[in-house]
Design brief:
single chain; 240 residues; alpha/beta; Rossmann fold
Length: 240
């Protein structure tokens, strides 16, 4: 039987959460943006949820439903892509954190699946000025470690979007959403000096920057396992 994609929402009840007494909540943050011809618009949300659910399987945390639309402005103009402003994302995350605090959950981890959500780092810094209250996960070092553990051939710069990493994770959690074409979908654009100004379309005609042909379900599984292990340090920092 093929593995199924992790549910995008928690099925826990209020009683479940009362018994869990979690001190830390996970908020997956994805996006709704183009990922070439073979990966779905919801790829980043699927990735964020897969990471969060693997973490929640191993640690006593509260799993929240994902933010499914975020800051995808570098993909503007590609069919299907939808964005919200950085200030809107900032307000949503802040409101969620404040609401959790009223329920005695005082620490929040933003499980980010989209590299363009730069504002999340600022939110975490602001929230933690008076002490550790919020964290961003995975960070760059966590992804590098996960790639190494999975035996991936590419690094995060070369494999920026819809490449080996994302293809591998989706092939593991739900291979049916990966359409044919990744085997011949490699697109290399290592020089991207004006990406923030010009967007993705200045550097790729397919929507891909990376090597999806190298993706495999085995690599995806190993990467998720590595990320779950890395989360232990985050939990240690946030728990009172």
């Amino acid at each position: 039987m093929k593995p199924r994609m992790p549910k995008l929402i928690s099925v826990a009840t209020s009683i479940d959460e009362a018994e869990r007494q979690a001190e830390v909540a996970l908020l997956p943050v994805g996006s709704f943006e183009q990922h070439g011809r073979f990966l779905p618009l919801s790829t980043d949300t699927i990735v964020a949820c897969a990471v969060a659910r693997e973490v929640a399987r191993l640690y006593p945390v509260m799993l929240l439903p994902p933010i499914t639309i975020s800051c995808s402005h570098e993909h503007a103009g590609w069919p299907g892509t939808v964005s919200i402003s950085a200030r809107t994302l900032h307000q949503i995350v802040t409101d969620v954190a404040d609401s959790l605090a009223r329920s005695s959950v005082h620490a929040l981890v933003l499980v980010n699946g989209h590299g363009g959500n730069y504002v999340l780092g600022n939110i975490v810094q602001e929230a933690s000025v008076s002490g550790p209250r919020m964290a961003l996960f995975p960070q760059g070092a966590d992804w590098v470690k996960a790639r190494k553990a999975a035996g991936m051939q590419t690094g995060p710069h070369e494999d920026m979007h819809a490449g080996e990493l994302e293809t591998s994770i989706l092939l593991h959690v739900d291979p049916e959403v990966v359409r044919s074409g990744n085997e011949s979908g490699d697109w290399i654009a290592n020089e991207r000096p004006h990406l923030l100004t010009l967007g993705m379309s200045a550097y790729t005609t397919t929507g891909v920057i990376g090597r999806p042909s190298l993706g495999s379900a085995e690599k995806g599984e190993a990467a998720l396992n590595s990320l779950a292990e890395s989360f232990a340090d985050v939990l240690q920092i946030l728990k009172p």
